[in-house]
Amino acid sequence: MFTIKSPARYEQQAGLRHQAGELIRPLAAHLRILTSPRAWRAVNPSLSESLDRTGIRWQLDYLSGECTDDNIARFQQKLLEQGAEGILAIGGGRVLDTAKAVNNALGDRVLIALPTLAATCAAWSPLAIVYNAAGGHLRSQPLDAMPALILVDSEVIAQSDVRYLRAGIVDALAKWIEFEPYQRHNPHQLALDVKVSAAWQAVEIFQRWGEEAVRDNQQQQVTQALEKVIEANIVLAGLANSVRGSLDTPGFAHVIHDALTHQPELHGWLHGEKVGFSLLIQSLVANRNDQPDAELLALLRHFGSPLRLPALQGDRAERIEQIAAAIHFPTASLGDLPFTLTQPALKEALLMTDVRDFGDR
Question: What is the torsional sign of CA 156, 161, 162, 168?
Fold first, then answer.
């Protein structure tokens, strides 16, 4: 078994919001737009003018809160009542995942994704990440229906807070750190080879262009470096996530991330920041000592990952033990990793981040 899920078309260009209507009109003439106030401001008035100029009818919805089952049902009901043939999702991961879940449930609409951040691969990834109202991870829902079109305006991303780009770099970097151990332990499997190859291309881009792209983002400039890193964060990370073979390969760091989302004190961390801390935990467990991989640690430091849990309510040691106990890696995949994973090892690694100051440079 070997499958790859991908959008039908991907466009990336500075100023693309000015041409959105021309690109969307052949797919749908009537849209329900799902966005957030900040994302809507980031693309307008240019985008709405482009839609109006090409005769596209549209109505606007703002997502309130997380990608939850209630929000998915609410947007789906509005879409059905309106009868729109297309969904235009504009924003970050929560907006994109809500729209993807609705599109997948209906199966007869056209989805256009316009990410305003390069903080995750949500625009491309064949998953909708569903949370509870408090922001705790409930499930990663596989999708059959993929976007008909992804529009990435690199000018919009250049104007966003650089923190999101850094988090997206770490989230994309995680794909190689998570998938390569499976390949090492299970060689000569085409799906794994393709996943790891795409993920490694992203790592090479970060090594060459990452620092420059961060600097350009800080200066709100669209450059070759920024374009390359946006592609790595969305396309290469999304492609690595989209390849499926006979071997189930859950990302170790993302499993840890899912447990961290249930900790109220971490709700201020971005997705990629939680993933970065989780990569540190993965490296400590894999190395079975108090020394994480030096190259990984350098990258995490360089791109601003938090390397220690914040202040926690109650007894800190007890809370860390509770976090370790809440990490549930799929038992069926344990044997496919080249290292042993146990609850005591997770607890020891989490406590090690309190004992050692990994943020030292």
Answer: negative
pLDDT at position 174: 97
Identify the bridge partners of residue 2 per DSSP, sorted by sequence position.
Answer: 245
In this prediction the pTM is 0.96
Query: How much is the pLDDT for 360?
Result: 53
pLDDT value at residue 361: 45
* Sign, CA torsion 317/349/300/331: negative
Q: What is the pLDDT of residue 169?
A: 98
Q: Quick check: 279 and 296 in contact, CB under 8 A?
A: yes
CB 105 within 8 A of CB 72: yes
Ramachandran bin of 288, using left for φ above 0, alpha for ψ from -120 to 50, beta for the remaining angles: left
What is the secondary structure of 249-267 as a DSSP string? Answer: ---HHHHHHHHHTT-GGGT
Nearest in space to 42 (alpha carbons), one of 169, 194, 156: 156
Torsion angles phi and psi, residue 86, rounded to 5: -135, 155
Using 50 as the pLDDT threshold, list the residues of the chain that sit under it. Answer: 361
Looking at residue 134, what is its pLDDT? 96
State the residue for tokens 């839609």: 51
Task: Give pLDDT, residue 64.
Answer: 94
Inter-residue contact 151 to 23 (CB < 8 Å)? yes
Return the exposure string of 213-251: e unless at least 16 CB atoms fall within 10 Å of the residue's CB, then b: bbebbeeeebbebbbbbbbbbbbbbbbbbbbbbebebbb
Phi and psi angles of residue 30, each rounded to the nearest 5 degrees, phi first: -140, 115
